[in-house]
Amino acid sequence: MSAAPGPRDAAAALADLRSGTPLVHCLTNAVVMAWTANGLLALGASPAMVDVPGEAGPFARVASGVLVNLGTPHGEQREAMAEAVTAAGEAGTPWVLDPVAVGPLPVRTALAADLLEHRPAVVKGNASEVMALAGLGAGGRGTDSAAAVDDAVPAARELAARTGGVVVVTGPVDVVTDGRTEVRVGGGSPLLAQVTGGGCLLGAVVAAFLADSGPLLAAVAACASYGVAAERAALVATGPGGFAVAMLDALAALDPADLEHAARLS
């Protein structure tokens, strides 16, 4: 069993990210592109939204990390996703699969199953998505989970064993597992669910941390950073609009020393 990362490890991972300015290649849904790009910039990464066939593969080879988010998988983007993960595998570029709304929707569910064979470093999804991807559930209601985080832990372990990577089950308390070690990450805010892309941005943040950290630490550090930033944003926000702006500011202001003291890991 590998050692579980702690707050000090997460803080060091954030410092590495900030010093390295990783290039994060995002193949993500049309609804959240600007929010995702702004969130990565606030964190200290460099975003690129390259989802055109013929370009996605070459870019995945030079990127620090890749995000594949299935929120709006139109035909050309599906082709670009397959190209990107193939190139990422050949180049050793770590990548994240966010299987948005898999289960009840057939096109993305089949696509997610195909992409999973390329062994993402991290799979990030809510409980229903993780269970559906593992073949242990029917999925949720659109992007909303119909299952509790603990319900999905066996599926997360199974997926981690299948891919040799890490699975993040998001919820009020996130669970991060590599199939052997599990870390629970507290924090966050209910306001994240009232901002379009509140969950999608986390996948991109995980991809940014993968540039300099192994999958388990990257996922834990990403969830911890995101949770602490969301808690701080919620303290000054009066509603979802103000929270979205405050979240970007909180990501930008997050300091490794603050993360070491504020991260809630168990």
Please explain how this structure is put together:
The structure is a single chain. By secondary structure, this protein is α/β, with parallel strands linked by helices. The protein has a single domain (7-262), classed as 3-Layer(aba) Sandwich (UDP-N-acetylmuramoyl-L-alanine:D-glutamate ligase). The protein contains 11 helices and 8 strands. It has an 8-stranded mixed beta sheet with strand order 2-1-3-4-5-6-7-8, sandwiched between helices. Helix 1 crosses helix 9.
Keywords:
UDP-N-acetylmuramoyl-L-alanine:D-glutamate ligase, 266 residues, 11 helices, alpha/beta, 49% helix
The structure class reads alpha/beta
Total domains:
1
Radius of gyration, whole Å: 16 Å
What is the CATH fold-level name?
UDP-N-acetylmuramoyl-L-alanine:D-glutamate ligase
> What's the story with the biggest beta sheet?
8 strands, mixed
Distance between the termini: 16 Å
Q: In sequence order, what are the helices and strands, one letter per element?
A: HEHEHEHEHEHHEEEHHHH
Number of helices: 11
Which class in CATH terms?
Alpha Beta
Mean pLDDT: 94
Unreliable spans are none
- Helix content bin: 40-55%
Widest sheet, order of strands: 2-1-3-4-5-6-7-8
Question: From the coordinates shown, what is the CATH architecture?
Answer: 3-Layer(aba) Sandwich
Q: Considering the protein shown, what is the CATH homologous superfamily?
A: Ribokinase
Shape: globular
**Percentage of residues in DSSP E strands:** 5-15%
DSSP strand tally: 8
